[in-house]
Amino acid sequence: MNRIEAIERMLNALPLRRTSPKQLQAIMRGMDLSLEALSPYIAEPADLPYGRTSLFRTDAAEAVLIHLPPGTETYIHDHGASVGCARLLEGTLTNRMFRLDGYGYPCLSGEVEIEEGSYYYAPKKQIHQLRNSGPQRAVAFHLYAPAPAGKSYFPYEQVLDYVI
Ligand SMILES: [Fe+2]
């Protein structure tokens, strides 16, 4: 059984609906998430500013491998009705949190530096952006429950245009 099959088997055996980010973390702690085994699944950016590989997906859960080269960032987004937990396998990231203003535009409300090997969470309704300001690539394993659907992106550039 290869690494991805092991992840699939583990997730298939678990009741992931209405799961909290901390419960996802507990599941992830039981997984062997060594970068050596996952490296064949690291994707280069294509239609997104970062590489994204879906390792496993059912309605209940999705496991994704994320690759942000130096100087890249995700769009500002939420996760619909999903919650998430992630572990940074390589590099460093900044997790930038936003809240919506009265016009529905995202305003930066906080930033957290994520160190290599640490976990971070996507609670329900979180709006955020991951940024790699470091000199090396960032690779992270993300686990969502239920599988993301109806994710929203927020047009930050329009805010800047408006302000300027
Ligand atoms: Fe996210």
Brief digest:
With about 160 residues, the protein is α+β, with helices and mostly antiparallel strands. About 30% of the residues are buried.
Write up this protein.
With 164 residues, the chain is of the alpha+beta class. It has one domain: Jelly Rolls (Sandwich), CATH 2.60.120.10. The protein contains 4 helices and 8 strands. The chain has helices at 3-12, 21-29, 35-38, 156-163; strands spanning 51-57, 62-68, 83-90, 93-100, 106-114, 119-122, 127-131, 138-145. Strands 1-2-8-3-6 form a 5-stranded antiparallel β-sheet, with helices on one face. The protein has a 3-stranded antiparallel β-sheet with strand order 5-4-7, with no helix packed on it. It is globular. Residues 158-164 have low confidence and may be disordered. Bound molecules: fe (ii) ion.
Question: Secondary-structure blueprint of this entry?
Answer:
Elements: H1 3-12, H2 21-29, H3 35-38, E1 51-57, E2 62-68, E3 83-90, E4 93-100, E5 106-114, E6 119-122, E7 127-131, E8 138-145, H4 156-163
Antiparallel strand pairs: 1-2, 2-8, 3-6, 3-8, 4-5, 4-7
Keywords:
Jelly Rolls, 8 strands, binds fe (ii) ion, 164 residues, 3-stranded antiparallel sheet, disordered C terminus
The CATH architecture: Sandwich
Uncertain segments: 158-164
Shape: globular
CATH topology: Jelly Rolls
Amino-to-carboxy terminus distance: 55 Å
Q: What portion of residues is helical?
A: 10-25%
* Total separate domains: 1
The number of helices is 4
Find the structural class using helix and strand composition.
alpha+beta
Ligand types:
fe (ii) ion
Q: What would you give as the CATH superfamily?
A: Jelly Rolls
Strand content: 25-35%
Q: What's the total count of β strands?
A: 8
Largest sheet: 5 strands, antiparallel
Largest beta sheet: strand ordering? 1-2-8-3-6
